[in-house]
Amino acid sequence: MLRLIDAGALATIQDHGRYGFQGYGIPVSGAMDIFSFSAANAVVRNRLDAAAIEMHSPMLLETDASAIVALTGPQASFAINGRAVPQWMSIFVRAGSQIEIIPARAGGWHYLGIHGGIDAPPVLGSRSTYLRGQFGGWLGRALESGDEIPIGPQANSDYSLLAGKTVSARARTFMNSSGVSNQRMTMRVISGPHKEWFTPEVSESIEREEYLVTGSADRMGYRMQGAGLIRRLAGELVSCGVPLGAIQVPADGQPIVPMADHQTTGGYPIIATLIAADIPRFAQCVEGDAIRFRLVDLEDAGRAWREMWGLLQDQD
Amino acid sequence: MSVIVPPISKFPRLLPAGDSGILIEWADKISDAANDQVHSFAQALRDHNSAAITDLIPAYSSLLVCFESRQVSRDKILTLINDLLRMTLQTGTPASRLVEIPTSYGGAYGPDLEFISSHNGLSERQVIELHMSVTYRVYMLGFIPGFAYLGSVPEQIAVPRLDTPRTRVPSGSIGIAGRQTGIYPLESPGGWRLIGHTDIQLFDPAQDPPTLLRPGDRVRFVES
């Protein structure tokens, strides 16, 4: 069991998400950065979609029993009983140990994986938390200090075999984050689906302009700021299903990108959509980061997605 | 009761929605005929039961098909969609249910009833009677779990959304926006004009299905 001494703000239990219910208006939720999340499970030798803790601010916890844990995500100070340990590696912790995580930079999403997974009751097939709906994860809410979170049955209790595992060097650099403020990143996108709402010039202009991530960036979506995207058509788009990572264009021309807890349907035209393989890096962008979009084709996108998951197969 | 929907006369557009989605668009406006096609085709896809299709998001006149591109190529999904579209769709569509919503109009839960009546030159009683006079179609669910978009209210009580949405609309609130009416299954921010309230539970994640209302249902409001 993990006892939260200081839960921080907005830590939740997540897994890969709740699929099959978007037609009822129920979002997928799940980890914001599916790559770092899955890597945490990979190094502690869980199924990649086992439930883990997603945190957004410093956290202090205690484990009542021996455990194998790992921290992934952007740079953070990670300490067991005050002693610094590496990230992206499985760490053996003795019973009664304190685990402390302090992100180096605000705004990122960090994942604490534990061998056995977090044993929250599944709701509609998933352990992901949907905060607005107040269900899933741990009691349908953010974690609070004093919470005692059960761990699932462990496939392997020989911790000497489980400690010290890591991902490949290539996997470590997949996120390619320099950890400094105000980074410039390129995100690959597929054009459309609402191309006819924009002139070809405007559609192509998204490759030349830089968009800043604003302070309004949370599990529902990220608001961007930059050269306004002018629509060609007047009126409102009839509400339609919204894919994760869509670049929605409201009337003011400032893009909004729906993220894990996003509403399933919406009426803003979508000029382009992030490829699935770039959503982890996009999710880790914070206020002030500058994004440039690059149009790619579906073959490139498919290859990138397969390569991303392939990186998690290479294990020590 | 099975419903035979003849092959569509106009083939819908198929648009890429990122690399993990295909948006099938039957029309670019709200139409009952397009909405019938959306829900019939969604059922046909569900009946086909492809493991690679991870989710379906039906809307007014379109259907977003979400798939896992490692499990199946986009080309195979497109072939499946095109093949199903070409066939006569005979689906086991459940007979359309009629759901009655017991409603308390006005008062604390209907803060915009006065605005709707004065905006449209009607008494509050007339607004209520008109709201209750229609059997609404559930076009789609979206926005929040269990939120059903119901149409259409009589023209005489249509009203625009609030300029600034409320940060908290109580659960069970009933509102109007344009020609649509709807019920908030959970407390949430909201911009619809509120006319009343129901105690009926519209969403329960422990139930299967988790929502009271489903697309294709018919809904009436009954003053209680």
Report the total helices of chain B: 4
Looking across the biggest beta sheet of chain A, what order are the strands in?
Answer: 16-19-12-20-13-14-17
State the low-pLDDT regions of chain A, or none. Answer: none
Please give the radius of gyration of chain A in angstroms: 20 Å
For the sheet with most strands of chain B, the description reads: 7 strands, mixed, barrel
Rg of chain B to the nearest angstrom? 19 Å
Which outline of chain B best applies?
elongated
Overall pLDDT level of chain B: 91
Oligomer: heterodimer
**Order of helices and strands of chain A, N to C?**
EEHEEEEEEEEEHHEHEEEEEEEHEH
Proportion in helices of chain B: 10-25%
Distance between the termini of chain A: 27 Å
Main sheet characteristics of chain A: 7 strands, mixed
Catalogue the unreliable spans of chain B: none
- The total strand number of chain A stands at 20
Largest contact between protein chains?
A: A-B, 46 and 48 residues
Number of helices of chain A: 6
Helix-strand topology string of chain B: EEEHEEHEEHHEEEEEEEE
Class inferred from helices and paired strands of chain B: alpha+beta
Structural class of chain A: alpha+beta
Give average pLDDT of chain A, whole number: 94
How would you characterize this protein structure?
Chain A has six helices and 20 strands. Chain A has a seven-stranded mixed beta sheet with strand order 16-19-12-20-13-14-17. In chain A, strands 7-6-9-4-1-11 form a six-stranded antiparallel beta sheet, with no helix packed on it. Chain A has a five-stranded antiparallel beta sheet with strand order 2-3-10-5-8. Helix content of chain A is about 15%, strand content about 30%. Chain B has about 220 residues and is α+β, with helices and mostly antiparallel strands. Helix content of chain B is about 20%, strand content about 30%. Chain B has four helices and 15 strands. In chain B, the strands form four sheets. Chain B has a seven-stranded mixed β-barrel. In chain B, a hairpin with a 6-residue loop joins β8 and β9. Chain B is elongated. The model of chain B has no long low-confidence stretch (mean pLDDT about 90).
